[in-house]
Design goal:
241 residues, alpha/beta, Rossmann fold, five-stranded mixed sheet, 8 helices, 5 strands
Amino acid sequence: MLGSSPCGSRSFACAKLCCGGRFRLVNVLHGHRGCPERDHGNPEPFPFPFDRPRLRDARAPAGPRTSTRYGRDDPRGLSRSPKRLEPYLFYDRRGSELFEQICALDEYYVTRTERRILEANASKITSQWTDATTVYELGSGSSEKTELLLAQASRRSTRICYVPTDISESALRLASQRLSKVIPGHHIRAFVADFESALDAVFERFRAPRYGIFLGGNIGNFDAGGALSFLRRVSNSKQPS
């Protein structure tokens, strides 16, 4: 968990995101109430179905897929020796399907271990969540583990705003649709974004209190230096959640 505070004031600037930003709002699934978003004067985003993913705000005019990070990371990685691609580039529809298959393997203990930890601590983790809480997740994927926390909140009749973020639009769509059926009542807003863009988005767009979820396996998407840099950025945020 990334931490929380009842008095944070940051939140993901719509003007910046609509003009070359790196995330895209893919859906809005309404539960019993709306998310505690700041008013940027934008029209309501469209619901499912949605078109092909672009790393931008869905409220912006349609246009070519232009993400400065895509343009930067591809040639930089392929010019190295040995060549490499950033892990987030693997997670198209097929990549997400393969990852879920890996998680189900007996040899892959990480998912099972995380589930046991969450099952044992779900009540404690969600104890401070209220109907005014925004819970955002970086690299949410299928959201199957986070479902344990949302179910715990539901048992207390707490209806939070859940903001899953992931590089894979197909994973977000499937997860959001599933959660809206199995745990109705929560308000779900999903964003296609890399970790850092998603973090910017949540701080700019959603009011406090905000709680962050960054499950352990996701740290493997960074090299050692990148992991430290990212965690420092979260820890040293001038206006934490």
